[in-house]
Amino acid sequence: MKENLLKQLRFCTNLPSLPSVALKIIDLAGKADTSLTQINHYISHDPALAAKIIKTANSPLYKSRYPINNISQATNILGTYGVITIALSFLLADSLIKQSREKLGMTGNNSFWRRSITSALASRTLGKRLGMDKILDDLFLAGLLQDIGILAFHALMPEDYPPVFSLTEDHNALLEAERQTFDIGHDELGAALLEYWKFPSYAPAACRSSHTAPDIPNAGINECVAVSGYITDYFLSPDKKEKIDETTRIAEAYLGLDGHALIEVLEAMQNDLHHVEELFEITILNPAHLDNIITEARELLTVRAMIKVRELEDKIQHDGLTGAHNRAYFDGAFRSEFQLSIQQGTSLALAMIDIDNYKTFNDTYGHIAGDGVLVTVAKAITDQIRQTDIFCRYGGDEFALILPGTTLSAARHILARVMESIATIAYKPNEASTIRITASIGLAINMDKEKSFDLQSEMLEAADRALYAAKYAGRNRIVEWNPALTSPLKT
After folding, report:
1. What value does the mean pLDDT take over residues 32-61?
2. Taking 90 as the threshold, does the pLDDT of residue 87 lie above it?
3. HSE (CB half, 13 Å, CA atoms) of 250?
């Protein structure tokens, strides 16, 4: 069916036709020696078109420094190629809007063109945001035509296509339904139509790529046109909040634009949409509705950005294997808690926890099994501590537990539960073996009744000395630091 449809493009009498002025302008667009005089001559044959181009040159979209009164001045401001592209946009919109209503009898005709013109503005605005100032009019035209294949489908399959078109709410779902039913989508069919009409090559290329993800983010016409479709879907279906998430993801994947940049694009579109509506004589959104869309998008993207930052912070602050806070987080948290303990006179407990005989286990059963032990022990500890306690992987098989506002008596109870929880682990490194796990713990307390340490480093060293005293004394026990403790540090 695909090949038959492509062949029918040349012979279908129901297919929308281009006005003669548009055909001549397309011809001029393909010639390197096209002059302003030639352009002005053909545009002047269509007074309505000339008036629209003059109005366009005077619009805020182009920010002319002085009033434009005739087509020659407009051409000088917009440039030869700019006038060609803008003229094509107007001619095609005017002609095809009428034909889609009269010749094709399309239902939802206005919705189709609301989407097409919004996509054109979105494509142009994305290009502006990305510094593609020399091809803004190309971007507008390519965005306008990216769904032209839908018109072609209505012309070629007047009986079979409308049910497919009307039963799919989502634009990507429509494309998939087309491919399943007709073995071709409106992206490929539209590109073939534009090639048949002899449009500049960038237009069919953008149409063909309008639903194709790039390998890497790239600021090009194809990518801007593809993203414009997602922006338009959000503009015209703002009640579906998940669309802003999808649009943000696509803008970043296709163009490298983050949520903040996307908001700037939406706000720029808000400023320009009324001018585009006037130029194309179509109502897309009422101002109040548009304000609500932008406000909601800004709020949603702000929330998403905060969540993303928190997730990134969480990832940076946690050990990837065990889920405990990492050493860098421990250093900052312990520094803060120690200072708070000194300033406010509140008690602070620090426990250093080391898995007994871990190296032997790791050497015997391998690193994968060793990692499994670390994960299992970390969970056993986490299950026994409070939300206010700070659990960290200090390094290797050693963990640190910061217990803010915790007296010696309370710390003893918590650590006793921790030791018991670890001791109940029956770890199976393989089907034939079951290993019992124990841990040694060193505990240091500050400001229980009086200050014990002047520096955080002293308290950390004290907990470390207590830990190695516990290991020296036979492991699987808790040792509390005291000034008389002289057990050797690890060497």
Report:
1. 84
2. no
3. 24
pLDDT band at 336 (very low <50, low <70, confident <90, very high): very high
The pair of three-digit structure tokens given for residue 350, joined into one six-digit string: 């620090």
Amino acid at 50: A
What CATH number corresponds to the domain at position 142? 1.10.3210.10
| DSSP-derived 3-state class of residue 487 | coil
Closest CA to 140 of 72, 62, 74: 62
Tokens linked to 117? 């013109």
pTM, to two decimals: 0.66
DSSP H or E stretch at residue 160: none
Q: Cα–Cα distance between 140 and 86 in angstroms, integer?
A: 8
Dihedral in degrees, nearest 10, Cα atoms 444, 450, 453, 456:
70
pLDDT tens-digit profile of 62-75? 877 788 888 888 88
Cross-strand partners of 404: 348
What total of structural domains would you count in the chain?
2
Angle at 141 between CA 140 and CA 144, to 5 degrees: 85
Strand partners, 403: 349
Task: Please give the backbone phi and psi of residue 351, each rounded to the nearest 5 degrees, phi first.
Answer: -120, 130
- Residue numbers of the domain that contains 199: 2-16+103-310
- Determine which helix (DSSP H) or strand (DSSP E) holds 143, and give its type and residue range: helix 136-145
pLDDT in tens, 289-320: 888 888 888 887 777 777 777 777 777 888 98
CA-based torsion, 34, 40, 46, 52: positive or negative: positive
- Give the CA-trace dihedral at 113, 114, 116, 122, to 10 degrees: 160
Asked if 262 and 332 sit in the same domain, the reply is no
Give yes or no for a contact between 123 and 142, defined as CB atoms under 8 angstroms apart: yes
Output the pLDDT for position 29: 75
Distance CA 450, CA 95 (A): 88
- Radius of gyration for the alpha carbons in the chain, expressed in angstroms and rounded: 35
3-state secondary structure (DSSP) of residue 436? strand
Instruction: Kindly report the CATH number assigned to the domain that includes residue 364.
Output: 3.30.70.270
Rounded distance between C-alpha atoms, residue 171 and residue 177, angstroms: 10
**CA torsion angle 389 394 397 400 (round to 10):** -30
State how far the Cα of 261 lies from the Cα of 266, in Å rounded to an integer: 9
N residues, the chain: 491
